[in-house]
What we know:
The chain is of the alpha+beta class. The protein contains three helices and seven strands; from the N terminus they run E-E-H-E-E-E-H-H-E-E. It has a five-stranded antiparallel sheet with strand order 3-4-5-7-6, covered by helices on one side. Strands 1-2 form a two-stranded antiparallel ribbon. Residues 3, 13, 15-16, 55, 107 line the site of zinc ion. The site of guanosine-5'-monophosphate (5GP) has 13 residues, from loops.
Amino acid sequence: MTCLTIHGVTNDCLFCRIVAGEIPADVVRETDSTLAFRDIRPKAPVHVLVIPKAHYQDVDDLTAADPGLAGDVLAAAAAVAQAEGLPTAGYRMIFNTGGYGGQEVFHVHAHVLGGAPLGPMVSPA
Ligand code: 5GP
Ligand code: ZN
């Protein structure tokens, strides 16, 4: 499916453009409903973003609108972690959400981070 239009409105979302192939990405996994690609500014040795191909702005919107698709994103993120060899040592999955959550790209995405000790969950404000 294309996600360049939402309810008939043109969408210039960065991650929708990656889904559409308009912006290149280092894709590590793709399913019918999800795409996983390496973060352009990795914060850990492994840093992969996992998104639904359909546009939802954050995890709240996605879960309310389509809990099955939210499950697809979680399953894809777990599969990426497995493929990257992360579960044995441990890893982190993060959904930054909204302003206080530090979200910068408003197309819901899971960060899958690992490959080294990740430090405290939240740095002091
Ligand atoms: P957020 O802060 O919204 O949770 O995370 C957005 C993430 O998207 C950041 O980690 C940032 O490095 C990543 N990012 C921003 N632009 C691009 C891009 O064009 N390509 C890729 N692969 N990642 C991007
Ligand atoms: Zn989008």
